[in-house]
Amino acid sequence: MKKIREIVAFKNHFEDFLLKQSEKVQNKIYKILEAIEILEQIPSRYFKHIKNTDGLYEVRVQLGTNIWRVFCFFDGNRLVILLNGFQKKTQKTPKGEIQKAIGLMKEYYNQKEKENGN
Q1: What would the pLDDT profile of 67-83 be if each residue is shown by its tens digit?
Q2: Helix (H, G, I), strand (E, B) or coil at 107
Q3: What pTM does this model have?
Q4: Secondary structure class of 3 (helix, strand, coil)
Q5: Which letter does DSSP use for residue 1 in this model?
């Protein structure tokens, strides 16, 4: 299968989250990430823009009645940067988790600017 998008993680937030999950959940997350890499159109049940944010998305994972979210964004049109993840226990995504992801996104761009000497 040809990849349309490349997925990378920023720092260790995603990995820390992933390692706390059961093997079953990890496998489901990997399966959805693979779909995001190869599908031209990603179904909204797997991937959705967070309202009122500048380019923040969530990868949506469901296993039985349990729900997990992993925040990410595009760098250019191909790169998906994975940020923090959490298990969702309420109807709405907690504002604190969104703020954390926005902070990480800013940190990513600041670091990228420094690396590019700007």
Answers
A1: 999 999 999 888 899 99
A2: helix
A3: 0.91
A4: coil
A5: -
